[in-house]
Amino acid sequence: MTAQEVHAQLRDEAKKVLVGQEEEFELLLVALLAGGHALLEGVPGTAKTLMAKTLALLISGSFERVQFTPDLMPSDVVGTNVYDLASGQFRLRRGPVFTNILLADEINRAPAKTQSALLEAMEEQQVTIDGECYPLPPVYMIIATQNPVEYEGTYPLPEAQLDRFFFKVLLEHAPQEVENEILRRYHQGFDARRLDEAGMRPVLNEATIAECRREIAGVVVDDGIVGYITAIAQQSRRSSDLILGASARASITLLLGSKVLAALRGRRYVVPDDVKYLVPPAYRHRLILRPEAEIEGLDPDAVIAKLLGGVAVPR
Question: Is the pLDDT of residue 251 over 80?
Fold first, then answer.
């Protein structure tokens, strides 16, 4: 099964649960196949948790959810060694991080010490407990959520952690026609707490994901595309609107993400439109605006639009 066929089946199955969020769900799939993680930002009630659960069901994967709170400890996430009286030895009690899809709900409500417990898992796909390294599953993704309008009792994510997220996906309130369809489904008996009754069937497993990744690895990237990606990054570092421009990891994100997107759309090569489409979710959490730019009413997406307008598109 090709990546394009997988994409089509996943889209059809996800529609049984998700309404009007095709682009956002596609970005999650791109991040998953590229081996990355996603930060979902939206006000309450925009289906952030539902989207993560849906993805886990469609890939036949295990799912764990951690509610981040100010008193959450790193050992609550990664696990700890406990003494077993029966055997007289310490044994590992694995934390929820040992799963396929981990939902870090309201990640910015935990202090930096707990947030940093995910850094090794996100970058190295392993965790270290009492000096011993434990690998995480080959199919592994952290989906973190945060609320953009509540700041009391929150701890902003440090730049080092934000940079480890492949994408930042913004979830807005649904348009009225989409919200009408959501209400119709609930009226007809849909219950987000019982997704097993929604009729979705798994499309992917570990073997098919590995197969898709092999196909994606063969997608051709022309030197002109590579130059386009790095030119956007260089432009961000020279921008008068920014204190901090895009990192090298942002360029790697664009390269890998564009290869996945090309494969999902049935192409064996990357085109400039693939890159342009992915710049906002790949960049918006990595840029730090100057105060003057914020006073002018600019936000990261507006600055990104300016950046793209200043870089020549390769033919």
Answer: yes
Contacting residues for 174 by C-beta, under 8 A, at least 6 apart: 19, 20, 46, 182
Rounded Cα distance between 302 and 293, Å, is: 10
Distances from the Cα of 82 to the Cαs of 75, 118, 288, in angstroms? Answer: 11, 21, 42
Question: What pLDDT, in 10s, does the model give residues 68-85?
Answer: 999 999 999 999 989 888
Distances (CA, A) of 266 to 54, 145, 213: 24, 31, 14
Grade residue 154 by pLDDT with cuts at 50, 70 and 90. confident
pTM value surpassing 0.90 = yes
Q: Could you tell me which residues come within 8 angstroms of residue 309 by beta carbon, excluding any fewer than 6 positions away?
A: none
User: Strand, coil or helix: what is 236?
Assistant: helix
CB-hemisphere CA count at 13 Å for 229? Answer: 26
Question: Cα separations (Å) of 53 from 17, 163, 187, 206, 282?
Answer: 10, 24, 21, 17, 23
Helix (H) or strand (E) holding 128: strand 126-129
Nearest to 301 by CA among 169, 158, 148, 173: 169
Which sign, positive or negative, has the C-alpha torsion 67, 141, 20, 207? negative
Phi, psi (rounded to 5 degrees) for 103: -95, 110
Strand ranges of the sheet holding 101-105, from the earlier edge strand across to the other edge: 63-67, 101-105, 141-146, 38-42, 167-171
